[in-house]
Write the C-alpha cells for this entry.
Amino acid sequence: MQYALLIYEDETLYGPGKKGPGIQEIVSRHTAFNRELGAKRVGGSGLAATSSATTIRTKGGQHSVHDGPFAEAKEQLGGFYLIEAKDLDEAIAIAKRVPVLQDGSIEIRPVLGPG
C-alpha cells in the first residue's frame, strides 16, 4: 500500500526563500534518509515556500484565486514522501525517521488507488 508522508515545519527556520543555513543541514539529512528508504520510496519532493503558493477557493460553485496558502498556521507543508509500506504500522515506523530541522509533524495518509 502507498502512503504519503506530509512534512510540516516552520518554514521561517530555513530563511527567506529556503536559502538559509538550515537548508544545507536538512538537505543532507534527507539525502541520507532517501538512501535508507531505497525501493520503499516511490516519490516525493520538497516544496517551494508558501509565499509562492496560489489557492483556488470554491464557494457556492464560484471559484476565486488567492495568493498564498489557504490557511495561516505555525507549521507549513514543506515537502512529502510517497512510500510503499505493507501496513500503517510500517508507515508509522518510516515516518518517525523523516528528518525535521527542529520541531514539526509528519502526517501519514493512505493513497487512494484507482477508483
